[in-house]
Amino acid sequence: MQKYRHRLFSIKNPYDTQSDSIFVRAVKENFYYHYTHCHEYRTIAQHLGVDTDSFASIDDIAHLPCLPTLLFKRHRIKSTPALIKATSSGTSGNFSEIGFDIGDLLCALKMSCKIMHRRHLISLIPCHYIVMGYKPHHSNHTAVTKTAFGATLFTPAISRRYILKYKNGTYSPDFNGILLALKKLSKSIFPVRFMGFPSYTFFLMKMMDEQGIHIQLKKGSKIMLGGGWKQFYAEQTDKESFYHLAKKVFDINEQNIVEFFGAVEHPILYCDCPNHHFHVPVYSRIIIRDVDTLQPVSKETIGLVNLITPMINATPILSVMTDDLGILHDSSQCGCGIQTPYLEIIGRVAPTEIKTCAAGATDALKEVTQ
Questions:
Q1: Distance in angstroms (rounded) separating the CA atoms of residues 252 and 221
Q2: What residues does 99 pair with on adjacent strands?
Q3: Which residues on adjacent β-strands are paired with residue 159?
């Protein structure tokens, strides 16, 4: 039992600005757990000269061993046996495998309930779900599949239909099947909720618009987006165009479109605010690091995204370095009322591998920002 982790995930307001003290204690607690239970993590920490005495204030969390996501794609590192496991999508050929024990799952449940409630996504009104992602299959352990299914549990689900279906050893999209289902659901007295990849959702709406098929879904219908554009990054559209198309095709307003951000190596739920910004919840902290020196940079400065959370015991993902380039903005730049800073993802570094020295990231940064 990690009491400070329990206290952190029991905070009523998921965007409480007075949580630094508890967060630091939870980090120290979680660091000690991995240090004493994972040989690989302890070796890395000792090499960096980091121990439990290294954390006295919120600024000290920058000294945590910052493990690149590539490490988890190449090695199976664990601190304790896992109750369940989740994997990344593995679009580059390698995938991370992250374990969760019962305490980790309880933290995830408390976090999800509070954030989803804050965004008015928990309801007793039944609805139909159109999952723009993978239909669950015993061979599919990806986190994005588990997350999409989990999102269908926050209202009573009358039905679930999936666009990506498993057949003959592979997944393939069934746009026509979803379109036929939507025509039937348009006559239902209950709302429809989309959940899944923004790419497939956009492609479906674009196909319908080109064919002149516009369906007015029931009041309360929503579009929930998560998982990113993956291999369809080149086809990514801007948010305003997406919102306009959703209104045109489904009569779903912008305020009923919600986006999520996360990573299997950092299973914190980032849900956009009404102004569509990813504010940092109490369960995590984000450090933006210089692409050359890896030193923390100030707000409003682009750099590599370092994600920190003391949520997980089974796998040492206390502090991970992603291959994302992002900016941490002050809350005053948003105006939604949430007082924590928010993350803007700019893109990804171009090199096929991200290492702790961030070699080659400077050129990638130039390509993204040009």
A1: 7
A2: 85
A3: 128
* H/E stretch holding 343: strand 342-348
Write the single-letter amino acid at 37: H
Give the residue from 368, 321, 313 showing the smallest Cα distance to 32.
313
What letter represents residue 91's amino acid? T
The residues pairing with 167 across neighbouring beta strands, listed in sequence order, are 170
C-alpha dihedral sign at 113, 116, 119, 125:
negative
Report how far residue 185's alpha carbon sits from residue 179's, in angstroms, rounded to the nearest whole number.
10
Whole-prediction pTM: 0.88
CA separation for the pair 197, 238 (Å, rounded): 15
Nearest to 249 by CA among 206, 291, 285: 206
- Cα separation, 11 vs 166, whole angstroms: 40
Contacts of 132 (CB under 8 A, 6+ apart): 163, 178, 194, 195, 196, 197, 200, 201, 204
What tokens were used for 267? 């299973």
Could you please report the per-residue DSSP string of 182-251?
HHHHTTSSS-EEEEE-HHHHHHHHHHHHHTT----PPTT-EEEE-S--GGGGGGPPPHHHHHHHHHHHH-
* DSSP per-residue codes, 287-336: EEE-TTT--B--TT--EEEEEE----SSS--SEEEEEEEEEEEPGGGT-S
Mean pLDDT rounded to a whole number for the chain = 89
pLDDT single digits (tens) 72-131: 888 899 999 999 988 876 555 678 889 999 999 999 999 999 999 999 999 999 999 999
Tokens, residue 66: 């910052």
Which among 199, 338, 202 is positioned nearest to 275, based on CA atoms?
A: 338
Whether the CB-CB separation of 252 and 242 falls below 8 Å is answered with no
Within 8 A by CB and 6+ apart from 10, the residues are 110
Task: Please state, in angstroms and as integers, the Cα–Cα distance from residue 340 to each residue in 14, 20, 189, following that order.
Answer: 10, 12, 39
